Structure formats: C-alpha cells, structure tokens
Prior knowledge:
single chain; alpha+beta; 4 domains
Amino acid sequence: xxxxxxxxxxxxxxxxxxxxxxxxxxxxxxxxxxxxxxxxxxxxxxxxxxxxxxxxxxxxxxxxxxxxxxxxxxxxxxxxxxxxxxxxxxxxxxxxxxxxxxxxxxxxxxxxxxxxxxxxxxxxxxxxxxxxxxxxxxxxxxxxxxxxxxxxxxxxxxxxxxxxxxxxxxxxxxxxxxxxxxxxxxxxxxxxxxxxxxxxxxxxxxxxxxxxxxxxxxxxxxxxxxxxxxxxxxxxxxxxxxxxxxxxxxxxxxxxxxxxxxxxxxxxxxxxxxxxxxxxxxxxxxxxxxxxxxxxxxxxxxxxxxxxxxxxxxxxxxxxxxxxxxxxxxxxxxxxxxxxxxxxxxxxxxxxxxxxxxxxxxxxxxxxxxxxxxxxxxxxxxxxxxxxxxxxxxxxxxxxxxxxxxxxxxxxxxxxxxxxxxxxxxxxxxxxxxxxxxxxxxxxxxxxxxxxxxxxxxxxxxxxxxxxxxxxxxxxxxxxxxxxxxxxxxxxxxxxxxxxxxxxxxxxxxxxxxxxxxxxxxxxxxxxxxxxxxxxxxxxxxxxxxxxxxxxxxxxxxxxxxxxxxxxxxxxxxxxxxxxxxxxxxxx
Length: 588
C-alpha cells in the first residue's frame, strides 16, 4: 500500500477532517502545541485504551498508576533531570533565533535555503550557478550569509568551488563554504534560517518551571514533569504493597508530559506538550535469579519468549519486551516492514543502561524513533532510595529460602564470583559484597525494563501509514481519485457509518435510526443522511471508517442491510445479528 511522502498532505487532511488543529490558531497559534479535534481525540483515545488493555488489563503482572503532573522538585534532582536534562542550544547572532545545535542541518534541509542548495548541486555543483544564487534568491533567503553580504567572500567561494567542485557536492559542505570562504579557522556554523553566525552550543534545561502557591519565590519553584516514569519509581513501594504484586511485575502509566523543546518541528512529532505510555517492569537482578534457579537464561540459550520463565535474566526480559512492543505496534496497523529495531551502540547508551532498543518508523521527514525499550538496571530506584532516605528494597521469599540452603563455603564462592563479575564492569568490590549480603537476606533493589512510547508519535505514524490515494475508473471510463485512510478497525476513530438510502421515506429513515441506535451502543458509529451514497462513502473513506451500513427498502422486507467494506469496496447483505457479530469479532 503506497503512503504519502508529504507531511503537508497529512496535516491538510487532519485539519480538513477534524483530526488535528494548531493550538490557539485564531491568535496565530503557539509553536509546539496541538489540539486534537473530534476525530483526532477519538483516535488518540483508541490508541491509549488499546495500549492499556494490552499492557495492563490483559496481564496479571502489571498494575496501573495515574500520578500528578507536578511533583516534588526533589524527584527531578534525584533522577538527574535538574542537572542533566538539557539540549545543546545555539543562537543566531544576526536573526536571534534559537535552535538545537544538533538539529541545524535538519532544519536547513527542511527549509527553502536547503531546497535551493539541493537544486544547485543536482548533476554536480557549478560555481557560476552558486554565484548567481548568492546574488539573487539568497538575498531574500539567507541575507546574513557571508557570500551574500560580502563580494570578496563570494569571490573566494567561487574560486574554491572551481578548484575542487567535488568537495562541495553536498548541501551542508556548500553552505559552510558560503559562510566561511574568506573567514579564518575554525569554520563557523551558519544559521539555517538566515545564514548568520551561530553562538557556541550551551545547555538549555527542557523542563517547564512553575510556582506552587501564592508567593513567587525560588523556594516554591516546581516543574511540569518531562516524563511519566519518575512517578512510578517514587510510588514503587506503595503500588507494590497495595497491588500485592511480587517481582517480576510492572507498573504502567499514561499521561501528559512537557518539554520546552528549543525547536519543535515535524508537525506533532516533536511537541512541547505530549502524551506518553510508559511501563516500568521490575525484575530480579541476575544474581538473585542464579541463587533461586541455579542458572540464568540468556539470549545465547535461544529461549522461547512466548511465556516468561523464572530463570530469565535481564537480557531475555529486555528482548521479551521488545517483541511484545513490536507485536502491539503491528496489531495497531503498522506493518512489520514499516519499522526497524535500532540497538544502541555501547557509546550511545546512558551510563546506567545495559541495553536500549529504539523502534524506528520511516516518517515522511525521515526514519525517527517511535518508542524505546531500555534495560535501566537498578539506577532509578537506587537514586530515589539515596535521595529520599526511603528503602526501595523488596523482600523475596524464594530468594531467602534459596540462600538458606547454601553453606558458608558456597556463600563465599558466590560472593567471590559476583565480585569478580562486577569488577569487569568497573564496579566496586565492597559494593558487590554488600549487595550479596543483602541477597542472602532475601532483599534487593529491583532492576527495570522500560518500554516507553509516545501517543502522539504513534498516532502520526498511523496517519502517515494509513493514507492512500487510489485512481479509480467507473463503468463509463471516468477517472476519479479516492483518498482512503486504511486504519485498523481497533484504532479507527469511527467504526461504522449508518446511511438511510433516502431520507424522505419515514419507514426507511426510522429503521435506519433504529439500527444506528443499536450500533452506537456497541462502538463509535456515525450518522450521515446528506448527499448521494457514493459521496457519503468517500467521506467515510477519507476518515478511515472500516464499514458503512446502508438501510434501504429491502431492509423493510427481510431485515438485511448492505455492509460495504472500506478497503475492498465490496458489499454484502447481512442481518442485524450477523452485522453485530461481525463488528464484535473485528473489534475485540
């Protein structure tokens, strides 16, 4: 199924049909914030409810949490967000625009300047064409570029291109040259908006500040949460006790998060207000698994990932959740070949992470992260234990019983083995011995596997994937274009549309309203009585409605209705009971 490569096409449809609107649009909008319209909020709710059903309700080992957006600021100190949650930010010395330093070239490529440069290098860069662009269009696009402002700089660039055109055969290299042809080393990075010089990158904390209480005082400063995960760690003991769960188990949460992105971009992909779906799945440390089971199952053992086992180590649990997340993404309607697993390299991992997989989708603006699954060790709970003074340990009865069966020699050998393994990871031998001593008491701080997904990103991926323009030819040879959104029925904002064939015949109209009433109690149904049936079909195709039901005069005779399938456009006659059964089966 072909999908569009244009984000403009998707955003236009979303506004026209009521999926997504720019926030505060009547006042010129506010960058990085989006409102979800009648269809958008239904689809977004379907994504969240499906995630919750799959992750929490259909499992016995996951409990839920709904925490506040504003929490004690000490939480963000313990988690590291106050000190390290920042992006490198640069400012243009000419136009004063702020931007993430690591996104300069992406911004350039997406804008008119980048498109102009790309046109110049098609078939090989030509010094004369570059000079013409600098003297013409670039004066409006990049007025602060050195080669545009200064004739000597342009001449120097001209000569360098003539001497070695291959060195400037990509847009980035050419743009840097036009900004630095006459300048001294090191070369400055040019602004992607105007060509001016950028400042050196400096950290910019992404958390939104607010004040709790009536007095605007530094002591009352708090923050809107930049992620939902930390509340789960802070409430770990309360949830574990009240839900009567035992490790391994998970805590799930969905909700709003806020990040003061320097350069929000790519439609809803990178926004300042967004929703997350996060699971923290707590597991035994591998050392505890070894004491209980005598061995630790690793991926080298080629384990069956369908049913969790007590002997699984962190590596297998991590892979298990990668596969679980991929299965859910496919069930929501993204085909397997539309996304890839990216396993972060050791140098890319956070200092506390043992592994991290990014599930990446090919958006119209490039391959980007859809969600991540990280093995975070015991870092988060340990940090909160350290900063709060409250224990985050659990007592594991099977572990205590297993340790009690060891004699002193076996305990000493196990302690030495763990100490040696920790040493290979650069961890302290004394800390290893203290950790093992706790294990022998049946206690430990759980490790965690964290699948973290964005609702908005998932919705954007589904919108992009679902869009198709089909060229149709009718029986008279007339060509037409059908825009159709191929949403999975479980995600589609409207499941079924009901049409009376005619609205001026009370018996047909009333029967249609009766059937509509039956269906809307079971799923999201839409009533449409305006225009020809063909036009009504097309309107529903464009919003992704899987089925349309038409009530006609035959319905009055035998009780059957016409059911039309969105994807095949095939029609069949069904009784109301058959229709209900078909919908129920498809929407489970």
